[in-house]
Structure formats: C-alpha cells, structure tokens
Design goal:
Order of helices and strands: EEEEEEEEEEEEEEEE
CATH topology: Jelly Rolls
Number of domains: 1
Helix content: under 10%
CATH architecture: Sandwich
Number of helices: 0
Strand order of the largest sheet: 1-3-6-15-8-9-10-11
CATH class: Mainly Beta
Strand content: over 45%
Radius of gyration: 15 Å
Number of strands: 16
Length: about 200
C-alpha cells in the first residue's frame, strides 16, 4: 500500500533543455517484503527508521529512461543493516534497479530486482568484490548513478567507483530512495535529471 505525502526533500527535475521544472509535489512511500516502512520528515530531510524488509520513497511525476539520480545521506543506526541508496527505472516494488551504500560492510553495490528477485550487477571488468572504500556510518555521503541505455556509472562523494551493464529493465521508470531492514538513514538534497 502506497502512502502519499508532500515533498520533503529538495528535489529538482532537470529536463533535456536544461529548463528547471517544479519539484515533485509528493512522494510515494512503501515497503517491499514483510513489515511496514517507517518514513518520517524532519527539517527538510526524509528519514527511514526501519520496519520493513525494504523501504522505498519514489518520485513518479517524471519517469526517466536515461539520466541521473543522486542523494546526500547518512546512516545513523541499525544492528543488522545501515544502508541507503537510490532507485532508477522503477516499474513496481518487484522490478527496479538500486545502488546502495552499506556502512556496516563499508561498501557500495548495485543490484537489479526482477520479479522480486535481487541479483548483483557485476562491475565492468568482472570484479566480484565491490568497492569497499569510503562508506562510513554517521558521515554524510553523496551517492549518484548516471544511467544511459544498459550502462550505469556509480559514484560516491564525486568519485566514480564502478560501472555496470544490464539491459533487463530498458524502458522509463520512476526514481527514488531505498533503505532496508533496521537501518536508520537520513536523506537530503535528492536530485534527478533526464538526458
């Protein structure tokens, strides 16, 4: 079940002509799996406080096929997980892409979720271990994904970490935020744009 609330994080849509559009009027919030995602707003931030297998917050006013999505976030709690991420090409709770930073593990990974099954996206070059530098608890980070066609480039704090390729979900979809399990994650400065 989706809950709609007013926009809580400064979001900007940049269209191909570079004309600035209005921020989204509202977020769609919800869970995937068991439980109820606990989202709250405070001082311009959207905060996930656990409660569900996965919690998501989407901006569905402008589906994107190619573009970017980024957010500033910090993981401030969680025993099992401390994760925050961005979603792109969202079709529904069972079909989307996500890149996330996990501060307990100290890494950043990208996944595809198809028919509810999550699979790792292997970085170009075939590396099986993802970048493990820089994702620290309680520190503010900016996670960004640039996506065009089947190529996705993942960056943390302005530093390109890795690129992945996957053509499973090719059409346009919503963009948004992602967290999981008992994570307590604050999000701000959410931005996205089309190519």
């Amino acid at each position: 079940m989706n809950t709609r609330v007013p926009a809580l994080v400064g979001a900007t849509l940049l269209v191909a002509s570079a004309v600035r559009a209005e921020p989204p009027r509202e977020w769609s919030l919800g869970p995937t799996g068991r439980g109820a995602a606990q989202w709250t707003a405070r001082e311009g931030r959207l905060i996930y406080r656990g409660g569900a297998t996965v919690g998501w917050a989407l901006v569905q006013d402008a589906p994107l096929r190619d573009g970017f999505v980024q957010v500033r976030f910090r993981s401030i709690g969680g025993r099992e997980d401390r994760a925050g991420g961005v979603i792109w090409r969202w079709r529904d709770p069972r079909n989307y892409y996500v890149a996330r930073a996990h501060t307990l593990a100290g890494n950043v990974q990208a996944f595809r979720v198809v028919e509810g099954r999550r699979d790792d996206l292997v970085p170009d070059g075939g590396a099986t271990d993802f970048d493990s530098r820089g994702a620290e608890s309680r520190a503010w980070h900016t996670l960004r994904v640039d996506f065009a066609g089947a190529e996705f480039r993942v960056s943390l704090d302005g530093r390109r970490l890795f690129a992945v390729r996957d053509a499973t979900l090719e059409g346009p979809g919503a963009v948004g935020l992602w967290s999981k399990a008992d994570s307590v994650t604050e999000f701000e400065r959410f931005e996205y744009g089309a190519r």
